[in-house]
Inverse folding.
């Protein structure tokens, strides 16, 4: 199993997958949003400023590049399982219509959902440490029952509910990650913008010097929420 690299020196490792499975089958297709909702480029711009242009699956505003992580591979989980370590997260956007919270599940299977913040808390930040591999997750409040979806497809009956990007500054240094969740498993619009969360390094000296990311206060612009 391998996962995209975050920062092994501080326990934020999420190691890159092998070259196997780098074709279209390794990436979940993301559709363009409709009804005035924000796209991934719009949400990235709300976090970092400037205008993000697409290059294949990736985006850049000239200062920050967002490189799409694999969702799956023949020999690895892609972005489905994340390494133990120290993390901080900030809610940047919520284009969902249901009540949703964001958090994680410890371990690679089963596990208890642990909430970090709600979808109505744009700009909310949370930090946590774990000594176990884990999965990012959202909890959707339902009329009859709640649903928890994670970054691991098998937890969602084979549906990928999260895509992610690794973030790099102009000098090519890794500065964090961006998570984009879909909150509907059936009849989904597959635009993956219902919950958008920025992850930062702990600490992040290069990012802090750019005014982009830091544990004490991520230098992001106004977030976005839709109801």
């Amino acid at each position: 199993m391998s996962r995209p690299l975050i920062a092994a020196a501080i326990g934020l490792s999420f190691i890159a997958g092998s070259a196997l499975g780098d074709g279209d089958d390794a990436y979940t297709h993301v559709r363009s949003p409709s009804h005035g909702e924000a796209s991934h480029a719009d949400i990235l711009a709300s976090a970092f400023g400037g205008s993000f242009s697409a290059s294949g699956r990736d985006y850049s505003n000239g200062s920050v590049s967002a490189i799409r992580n694999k969702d799956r591979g023949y020999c690895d989980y892609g972005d489905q399982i994340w390494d133990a370590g120290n993390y901080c997260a900030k809610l940047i956007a919520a284009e969902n219509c249901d009540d949703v919270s964001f958090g994680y599940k410890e371990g690679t299977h089963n596990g208890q959902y642990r909430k970090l913040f709600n979808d109505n808390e744009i700009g909310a930040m949370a930090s946590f440490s774990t000594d176990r591999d884990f999965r990012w997750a959202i909890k959707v409040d339902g009329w009859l029952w709640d649903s928890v979806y994670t970054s691991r497809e098998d937890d969602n009956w084979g549906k990928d509910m999260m895509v992610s990007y690794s973030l790099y500054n102009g000098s090519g240094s890794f500065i964090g990650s961006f998570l984009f969740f879909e909150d509907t498993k059936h009849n989904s619009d597959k635009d993956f913008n219902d919950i958008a969360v920025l992850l930062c390094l702990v600490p992040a000296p290069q990012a802090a010097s750019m005014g982009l990311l830091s544990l004490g206060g991520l230098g992001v612009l106004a977030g976005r929420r839709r109801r």
Observations:
- The longest strand covers residues 85-94.
